[in-house]
Amino acid sequence: MTEIYDAGAPLVPAPPRPAEVDEHEWTENLSEPSRYGGEAADRAREQPAVDGDGQAAHRFREILVQTQDLAWVDKTLAGLTHKALWRNEDTGASISLVKFEGGSGIPSRHSHASNQFMFCLKGRYTYVPTGITLTEGSFYWNPKGSLHGPTHAEEESILLEVYDGPHYPTQPDWYSSPDDAR
Length: 182
Prior knowledge:
Elements: H1 23-28, E1 36-37, H2 39-42, E2 45-50, E3 56-60, E4 73-74, E5 80-88, E6 94-100, E7 116-122, E8 124-127, E9 132-135, E10 139-142, E11 151-153, E12 157-163
Antiparallel strand pairs: 1-5, 2-3, 4-5, 5-6, 6-12, 7-10, 7-12, 8-9, 8-11
């Protein structure tokens, strides 16, 4: 990936050590040097580090994020907001909550540069040409490179969206910001 990692991202202090955890284990129980972004990473970035390729990275601690406390962030496509939970800045893999307002959707056929997985938490979200409709509790997999869409949210729809790599081979024309295509 050609993404730029923010090596100067703010660090968080280590949380208090639980009495049940040895002091040495608590101090050392951080991730390998990694280049992560998103809300979870922003709340768990404890130490600056260098990864195996000599690039700036950080070490992270496990974290719990209460997603109901996070604000929905607008994307440049009308009716679409998201909560970016986690992102691997090197591979483009990501986990987000996405919300489509009723009547909105992705306007054209497209494919992804990686596998796309979605779990519907709320609503009715339809892939128009095929009639595939995600409803609460349904799981959808769109394999890498497979054309799909356009889509239509029949009502407000909230989806857990996971990519195992970069989202798009090129920025879709329905986004005016490259950040929206990440």
